[in-house]
Amino acid sequence: MSEENKKRKRKWGDRKDARWVRDVPGLQSIMAHLMYNRTDCEVYLQDTIDVTELMAYLEQKNAQHPEYKTTLFHCFVAVLARMVRERPLMNRYIQGRRTYERYDVSLAFVCKRRFTDHAEESLMFLVPKDTDTIEEISKKIIGDVKETRKSEHSTGGVDAILDALAKLPRPLLMFVIYLIRLMDFWGISPDFLTDGDPNYSSVFFSNLGSIKCPSVYHHLNNYGTNSIMITIGTMRKEQKLMEDGTTQVRTVVDIGATLDERIADGFYFARSLKLVKHICAHPELLEKPLNEPSGFDYQ
Q1: Structure confidence by residue, pLDDT tens digits, 128-178
Q2: Who is most buried in 103, 144, 146, 271, counting CB within 10 A?
Q3: How far apart are CA 29 and CA 267, in angstroms?
Q4: What pTM value is reported for the model?
């Protein structure tokens, strides 16, 4: 949670990370009661993203700034942050049978400390500023990952809490989890439980291509507020029919997304995906601050 958000004056019914959306359509409001579990409302989206221009942009950028190597993963984090910033319904969630809209855009991902079967994973959490560009986002990710990989063990935050809870006797752990779920429902969970927890992020993102794995559908969780889970797979070459009728061999990645259908309709989801494709085709947009509109024509 950003410092600005912590100082924000809240109205009655708002949560610490989001405002209560009171003017949602009746159907959406009733759905929050009929299907109150997030896992009951999952919709799945799979598509192929053309990243040819994006890879050419990365090659040029990294040649100019070899001290900070920007990767495809960094770019997708920036693309998703820009998409959510420009499409506010994608930053909503349902909790306590109410609809909320976050104040901040946040992205979470898992960092493997070493690429071995038994190496620990660490949960990473990023809240980009409205003025951030791909440059700042890339540097933040590089810095956070380096700090995490300095140690073979959990270094605090959510990892430390999970390690401590896992040592409790089963009956006591069941009671503690019940209390945590109750606080989660009413939006009164303390910061030490929610800050840095991917279950409270706008988008939980996983680059499975880094481990040579295809994209998958990952379930959402009933706990927390995360409404969007996205994975991308390995890059590959694919022959595509272009708009001018010619065929070209392009660089593509598969993307799999799981979304909570209660936050928006399919038309809104489809347009949000079009924006992601547009940014990947015009990577110069990543040089703009997040609060500058992309100028994409949704028609």
Answers
A1: 999 999 999 998 888 765 555 455 444 445 667 778 888 999 999 999 999
A2: 103
A3: 19
A4: 0.87
CB within 8 A of 267, min separation 6: which ones? Answer: none
How far is 199 from 274, CA to CA, in rounded Å? Answer: 26
pLDDT tens per residue, range 248-289: 999 999 999 999 999 999 999 999 999 999 999 999 999 999
